[in-house]
Design a protein that fits this description.
Layout lengths: L1 H11 L3 H23 L2 H18 L10 H19 L4 H8 L8 H18 L4 H11 L5 H8 L3 H20 L1
Helix pairs in contact: 1-2, 2-3, 2-4, 3-4, 6-9, 7-9, 8-9
Length: about 180
């Protein structure tokens, strides 16, 4: 990955050929990240263009000591795609208009199953330390990034990754019982 770091350094100097090479080496991975989050090929393609505009504009912000170039690029792609998802939230007027439509809600049996599953998850979440349970909620319900969580809890990024990984493993064990 030294090549990616070198290319990013050249992008800082506005080297278009380096930028083209960087795109060629990383666009498939960044597209996959955007597509996984956005779940639409057209949206992911559009997001990819915006992601590379951000890379062009912010290449000087890359800090090699904070991670690999691919990790930095992936974070830009992930955060941009999440921002697009958040921007899609319907306005209140659209919700009001949709209120009068027929309900597609689950039936009584599905509601009972969902309630039971929700109770199991709540029970298992209570087995986690409170700060770790809250970090899991913020990451997987609110969509906060590892970096945002690390900043919020004032812990190193790798510590946050470890918290979440261990918490998810503990939740999986509890749910399998």
């Amino acid at each position: 990955m030294d090549e990616l770091a070198t290319l990013l350094g050249r992008v800082v100097l506005r080297d278009r050929s380096a930028f083209a090479r960087l795109y060629a080496l990383t666009s498939a991975k960044l597209f996959a990240i955007a597509f996984r989050i956005l779940r639409d090929k057209g949206d992911a393609e559009e997001a990819l263009q915006e992601i590379y505009i951000n890379v062009w504009r912010r290449a000087e912000r890359y800090q090699p000591e904070q991670g690999s170039p691919m990790t930095w690029l992936a974070a830009i792609a992930r955060n941009h795609a999440i921002d697009l998802i958040r921007a899609r939230k319907p306005e209140a007027s659209q919700i009001d208009e949709a209120f009068d439509l027929a309900s597609d809600s689950a039936g009584p049996e599905e509601n009972a199953i969902n309630t039971s599953e929700g109770q199991r998850i709540d029970r298992c979440m209570k087995t986690l330390e409170s700060d770790k349970a809250e970090a899991v909620r913020r990451a997987y319900v609110e969509g906060l990034s590892y970096q945002e969580l690390a900043d919020f809890y004032k812990v190193p990024l790798n510590t946050m990754r470890t918290w979440l990984r261990r918490s998810l493993m503990k939740l999986r064990e509890c749910l399998e019982q």
